[in-house]
Amino acid sequence: KSTPHFVLKLRGGVKKRKNKSYTISEKNKHKRKKIKLTVLEYFKVGRNSTINRLCGACPTKCSAVFMASHFGRH
């Protein structure tokens, strides 16, 4: 008694997997807050029309970049 061996050509490979159903919702990404006229917070105009910088400038050679003002730093 011999058992016949059939060779079938399978097309497409593995079956499609079922989509995962997540129990926890995805994280909300941080959105940048747009503040109008932010430049007014960087400078203060005095009585004699003198302009004072409120934020510290970058310590390297780029004087146009302002440092952030964090609570409890500097």
TrEMBL record:
It comes from the Eukaryota. Residues 39-74 form the Small ribosomal subunit protein eS31 domain. GO terms for molecular function: structural constituent of ribosome. This is Small ribosomal subunit protein eS31 domain-containing protein. Gene3D superfamilies: 6.20.50.150. Keywords: Ribonucleoprotein, Ribosomal protein, Zinc. The keyword Zinc applies. GO terms for cellular component: ribonucleoprotein complex; ribosome. It comes from Gulo gulo. SMART domains: Ribosomal_S27 (SM01402). One of its GO terms (biological process) is translation.
